[in-house]
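MOLECULE: protein
FOLLOWS: sequence and fold
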Amino acid sequence: MPLQDLVTAEKPIPLFVEKCVEFIEDTGLCTEGLYRVSGNKTDQDNIQKQFDQDHSISLVSMEVTVNAVAGALKAFFADLPDPLIPYSLHPELLEAAKIPDKTERLHALKEIVKKFHPVNYDVFRYVITHLNRVSQQNKINLMTADNLSICFWPTLMRPDFEKREFLSTTKIHQSVVETFIQQCQFFFYNGEIVEVVNTVAPPPPSNPGQLVEPMVPLQLPPPLQPQLIQPQLPTDPLGII
């Protein structure tokens, strides 16, 4: 179902996305390997199925793991008819990402994201804000903006992996999503440009009971309420953001 059919003016974020993000932020933001370590596939599919049958269902009552919910959220975006980041803007984003000067590059990207369809823009801002929160806990969950972008860019941009020319732009695609996560406040909340310290968290270890996602796809303040978004990210009393 198209993204536009899943939202209203009063509820600009799909309810399923809100429920998944709320569950993750309330119960598992510090989970090691969040979004990279796969959850149980049966549970993941059942989350969407149960929601389709009853939109009021509580994910907590389903007793599913945070990794299963994270997988269901990624699957939601992978299953949309069109990617959240519109194909029509991919060339502009990739060109802007090549601009050598950081400030000029970020301002160019900011102007491009304003061209998103309003529905895509609202949902993209919501998702990137959530991923920024996840990255703030990277010392615990090991999911830096870099690691998160590796997990998310194929789902959010969904390029044609069969095209040979795509292979030469893989890293640029990833860097676009990584930059949005790192500079979330600048892009969406009129914040200042963040000076990023290149600290590399090791990839989450895999073990026999948990599969690690390949690159190709498939406590906190109250979860972000899109209709109440303020110019700045919510202040976290625990100092997380």
